[in-house]
Design brief:
The complex is a heterodimer of chains A (about 800) and B (about 200). Chain A is α+β, with helices and mostly antiparallel strands and about 800 residues long. Helices cover about 65% and strands about 10% of the residues of chain A. In chain A, strands 2, 3, 4, 5, 6 and 7 form a 6-stranded antiparallel β-sheet that branches. In chain A, strands 9, 10, 11, 12 and 13 form a 5-stranded antiparallel β-sheet that branches. In chain A, strands 1-8 form a two-stranded parallel ribbon. Chain B has about 200 residues and is an alpha+beta fold. Chain B has helices at about 1-20, 25-30, 100-115, 120-125, 145-150, 190-195; strands at about 35-45, 55-60, 65-75, 75-80, 85-90, 95, 125-130, 135-140, 150-160, 160-170, 175-180, 185. In chain B, strands 1, 2, 3, 4, 5, 6, 7, 8, 9, 10, 11 and 12 form a 12-stranded antiparallel β-sheet that branches. In chain B, β1 (about 35-45) and β2 (about 55-60) form a beta hairpin. The chains are: A alpha+beta (about 800), B alpha+beta (about 200). The interface between A and B is large, with 38 and 47 residues.
Amino acid sequence: MSIERRLPRLFLVLLLALLALAAWQWRHGPPLAASMLALLPQGAGDQLVQQAEQRMQEPLDRELLLLVGHPQRQQAIALVQRLGQQWRASQRFERVQWRLDSDLAGLRQQLRSHRLALLPAADRQLLIEQPEAFVQQRAAQLFDTFAAFSLLPPEQDWLGFGARAQQALNPGRRIQADLGSGALLLEEPGMTWALLRLRSHGSAFDMQAPPAIAAAVAEARAQVTAEGGQLLAAGGVLYAAAGQAKASREVGWIGGGASLGTLLLLLLAFRRPRVLVSLLPIGVALLAGCSACVLVFGQINVLTLVLGASLIGVAADYPQHYLSKSWGDADWHSWSALRATLPGLTLSLGSNLVGYLALAFTPFPALTQIALFSAAGLVGAYLCSVCLLPAWLNGLRLRPPAGLLGLSEKLLATRARLLDQLGSAALLGLLLLFCAGGLWQLHMQNDIRQWLGQEPRLLGEAKRIAELTGQQPTSQFFLVRARDEAQLLERQAALATRLERAVADGQLRGYRALSQLVAADSQLAPLRAALQRLPQHWQPLLAMGIPPAVLQAELSELSAAPQPGLEQALAGPLGEPWRPLWLGANADGVAGLVNLQGQAASALLQELAAGLDGVQLVDRLGELNGLFGATQLSAAQLKLIAAAAILLLLCIPFGLAGALRVVCLPLLAALAALAGLGWLGQPLTLFSLFGLLLITAIGVDYAILMRENIGGAAVSLLGTLLSALTSWLSFGLLLVSDTPAIANFGLAISLGLFFCFLLAPWASPRQAARPMRSSNSHNEARSHYEIP
Amino acid sequence: MKLRCWLGLLLVACLPTAEAFDLDQLGAQLAKPAVVRGPFIQEKHLRALPQPLTSKGEFILGRELGLLWQLRSPLTQDYRIDASGIARRTAQGWQLQPGQDVAAQQSRLFLAVLQGDHSGLARDFALQLSGSAEAWQLTLVPHSLLLKQIFSHIRIDGGALVQRIELVETQGDRTLMRMPDSQAGVALDEQERAAFVD
């Protein structure tokens, strides 16, 4: 008996150590991470691609764009000023920009010396093809009282190259600086919008920042609204904050619902409040899973916590293994029931561990984390169920209602009748038909957007901001490699020509290429030639009284001035928006990016890059979606390997035939659940596949429970039913989640559990699978652990 | 006693300004006529050119409606400036200039000057008025850093109506707008009204 005393003490010491570890890990607040993207695998590309991805992702994660609108222009300016000053003073952000930086001298100088290289493509074409029109437009501009303001005075820019380049720097001319305040304004009929750009400290996806920033934005919204204005905000941080809020809300009420449901179920089934201690393994499992993840990865992701927390629902099943035996044994005693079921419990843990750990070998950090979380959690739950609970349940006399057992027997009898009438083979045939039909209708969907869920209000605001500002940063971009700078500009220019057409066709909102800042040599050569022919066409300028010598001097200055190098152009104040696009020199030459505004179809972008040397489309979204698909395949393969491993493990107690049965039933249940998805018109996603993989683990658990047949088939089936219900309460409830990925997972699990339960009786040893003739099976309390 | 003395001095110091022609009076005076019409001559004095770039035309300022600016030489082009921005007349009718850039703000400023709306001006400029109702001078010096890098100052001369506007740019060029023969009227004629309405 001393072992029955020693085990609980040993476990309590372990638990205390675990609690101490967790307390130490949480000493600086919750070690939680919210970035869903951090759970995605690294891009498959080489180092340059990864460097480029990082460069392009950073602003998406850290930058926030706000529009403060008011029907009165001055009010909009006053509001944005106030917000800008407030936030600048609070130091909550690394950068707060709400007005034009007013260094015009630097802009003027660069515009003057680089104006030839900066001339936009359309104006270049006009000068080459219709020089008269070009000159006439310039003449009219010089007289125009209301001409657009030019940074360069006419005598530094007689031909107007600088003025045209300046216009192109502000595409669409939507955003304009207010001369008085410097505020950046967008005018709409009845509304003036003032721009406010924020850049958060560090990554947007650490745990504390997003809620704080979202709260600051909400407060600003309240302020602006109170003064009759309107506020729009977009930025990765806000999505992160919304995701975090939703996750904690769902953890709260799905978790709460599951706990409450499980509680009620246990009370109803066993009618002894003390049985509720069997929920303890769930708590231990959560604690162990969390601590293990933080120990290995430094922190734990919110998604891991949400999915992992429900996966541990299996933990609630362990005590069911021996609690459910109380129906079979009128003289139920916790330690002896445990001893009878321990081999099955251990087998179940072993096969579950093999199943979960297989997931750790997919390239998805998300799955690796969840696998570790689940494995650690299961071990914790197992130890709790085996070492501690029997002590706490010691002396408890369970008198569960016989009605439940009667139900179980009725179910078995129905099954037996069905089998007698149809035969096992016919039923299998029907099931396979169902599977075939469902699989036929099943479609795959691998879309990253499932991860994030849709937050309609945020999406709406982001869309509105994109419409107003024309700015809609995307993760798609082109990586252009070349031998040297000159070739890089040529290659970017060739790509830009194609992109220009896509923009004109409305397939793309906009783009930014280095060749816009410094024209390629092949573009400058015809331009220079056209300049030499220009004196034949500049009569309108002479007629205005501009002396020929002045124009001649302008011409020679333009033709003779050395063209700026890329680095030089980037260093100037005009170069700022282009700076992230330049990746510099590497061992193979140089590289630069072309970024895009507005989401475009991957296929279209592929087509645009096709046939251009050195141009590579980097489409993280598309790539990830592809990777989702590939992962499904590798996860399925891993699962088969895991099934083989479980088969080997189970051969020891059950022999090959029994083990095959125990392993094949869950696989069949998973297949049927897959077909169920097909019949319901739901897609197979990485997440539903993941759910099905878990189903095979849980299914093995049920099959073992039935196979062991302790207390008889009806008792075992009842244990399986209780297990299935508690599992469904913990995983299946996820099906109501707002995040499509999680809901899809919950649905797959729900279907899988149903089929697992349905198929479990076939795992029973043959002689016990015969229908139970009488209800006196309680009295057949035999320790039915047999090794065939 | 001492305090009273100081107060007295202060009163005396304030007296001349209180008596002189002030911004409110100027505003009221310029806002009086319902319509102002007349020729204009615009001279752009560029440092690099011996002669200014000169253009001529007619303007019609309708109170509450805006400004019609009809350039006639050396080229013909009509503009309309009102609350919605700058429009150019094309073969298809009035076309609003895209964007609300500096030019639009400049023209809004111009409109404010002609209509004597000094509250709008005071936001962006320090205003200095001298002279009398018959011959006054208003000097606008920009407050903001941004404007300071564009204009050094703007000087407006007039009597009953605005006669001369001079924009002096920071970089040395200046634009002189003369309206030597403006006439106050009571109403727009049919054609003018049509130009404002459509």
